[in-house]
Amino acid sequence: KTIYPVIDEALQQAHLTLADLDAIAVTRGPGLPGSLVVGMNAAKGLALARGLPMIGISHLEGHLYSAWLYKPDTNPPHEPKFPLIALIVSGGHTELALMKSHLNYQHLGATLDDAAGEAFDKVARLLGLEYPGGPSIQNASVDGNPQAYNFPRAWLNDSWDFSFSGLKTAVMREVRQVDTSVKPLPVADLAASFQAAVVDVLVTKTIKAAKQHSAKNIVVAGGVSANRALRHSIQVQATCPLHIPPIWLCTDNAAMIAGAAYFRFVQGQRDQLNMDVLPNWPLSEVPAPISS
């Protein structure tokens, strides 16, 4: 009931009409099946009604290509150069990949349990902070000491994978040891120390991967890439040019899906109208463009 009014409003804000479009981009996955199906059906309807080609896009790929986007009234930024190391950090995904060219992904590592954003949400709940946990923990950390607690870092024997469940458990253990009838929970210190541990692992592994694979650039994208501590830490430590989307492009948005679709469109990809959603779609299984 609401998706078509949303599409109409988006076109109005962009000062465009359906007649101005060259193709319809749609998120194919990964994600919640119900939401994906709503978007897919709307895209198919528009593509069929307007005689436009349709291009299915990976949500994760969209996050990466937000690093190529900019507003039309601003100067184009320097484009990321290949090969590059890509870190995707969001509520549902934490993944490290090597890109040797556009739309080409080599999986290096991913979370074995909680994604970074998911860990932020769970720890925020433990600390009595609001959802979503990312902004809440970031704000609570401002007055905290990031070295107050020496929380564990899961290095996983130098693999590129991530694990945050042990860190979450360590925070839970500290919370349970505080008798709040005697003294208040040290939320700021706990939040700052937790955030420091997450950032430490994300940044260290990303920079190490960039060095090992002789990457020319690093791209960090996804909702968690809006985190100030993460942005500052990797900017300070990066040994090659770094690309992080502006804050307004870090969280889920349609522009990033259109951006990724542009690169597939110019390489000739046109998908069939019987295309289905893929709720579980690893970035490593996203194929290179196939011309129809």
What does this protein look like?
The chain is an alpha/beta fold and 292 residues long. It folds into 2 domains: 3-64 and 251-285, ATPase, nucleotide binding domain (Nucleotidyltransferase, domain 5), CATH 3.30.420.40; 82-244, Nucleotidyltransferase, domain 5 (2-Layer Sandwich). It has helices spanning 3-13, 33-50, 59-65, 116-126, 133-141, 165-176, 187-212, 228-237, 247-250, 254-266, and strands at 24-29, 54-58, 84-89, 94-101, 104-110, 217-221, 242-243. The strands form 2 sheets. The chain has a 5-stranded mixed beta sheet with strand order 5-4-3-6-7, sandwiched between helices. Helix 4 (116-126) runs parallel beside helix 6 (165-176) and helix 4 (116-126) runs antiparallel to helix 7 (187-212). 40% of the residues are buried.
